[in-house]
Amino acid sequence: MPLAVQAGLWGLFSGSALVIGAAIAWFTHVPRRIIGAVMAFGSGVLISALSFELMDEAYRTGGFDSTSAGFLGGAAIYTAANVVINKRGARHRKRSGQHPGGQQPSDEAGGLAIAVGALLDGIPESIVIGVTMIRGGAVSWVAVVAIFLSNVPEGLSSAAGMKHAGRSAFYVFGLWTGIAVISGLAALAGYSIFSGFSQEIIAATEAVAAGAILAMISDTMMPEAFEVAHDYAGLITVAGFLCAFVLSKLGASQ
């Protein structure tokens, strides 16, 4: 199977967590503490992945200048886009339950804004999946798992709001399936487009994605994880980081 297709399938897999989250919200009820713990663990895994599989590789190839510029640029681009999306109702897109004021993302506009926010979060993550396959021809499954874990509460939150707004199951699951497909296409594009560029450009792209992902973790995942898991959020995050670190080093030694 061509590597570009493999990248697309891995991106589709990580994006499918949005559909799973939507299904959880539609058919069952999961305690917020469990979702918060998943987000804290996923945050630790993501931080480990971007530290050792994106930033480290970007530095080895591009050095301090391009890596630093890309890292800060990715964070700035994400933050600017995030501000725009937040003003349209997507501020709480990774929340697993109620908002601070006791409200779910209950209107249709808010739910759609959350879906747009999911694209904002998911596209750089999916591109990373494709780009990481360029060097060794194998996916960074640590990154895939981390992205998968971060997507579940996002689908859950938006689906809850759309259900409350009266949207049909066909509409909700069709929307999230479409976003999952776009995630797959972004991963495919990440491999297909950037495999033709120089190592310096690939390194800068990795740094940009790392900056965007770290900004996303800080803005959306960690606040929710701390609010729900309270005093245990830090410990769970560290456990996720350590787990990903150990597994990535074991994978590198094989």
Mind explaining what this structure looks like?
The protein is mostly helical. 85% of the residues lie in helices and 0% in strands. It has 7 helices and no strands. The protein has helices at 3-27, 32-90, 108-136, 141-164, 169-194, 199-229, 233-253. Helix 1 packs antiparallel against helix 5, helix 2 (32-90) crosses helix 7 and helix 4 packs antiparallel against helix 5. It is globular. It starts with a helix and ends with a helix. The model is unreliable at 98-109 (pLDDT under 50).
Q: Low-confidence spans: pLDDT under 50, at least 5 residues? A: 98-109
Ends apart, CA distance between termini: 23 Å
Q: The biggest beta sheet, please? A: none
The geometry reads as globular
Question: What is this structure, in a nutshell?
Answer:
This protein is 85% helix and 0% strand. It is mostly helical and 254 residues long.
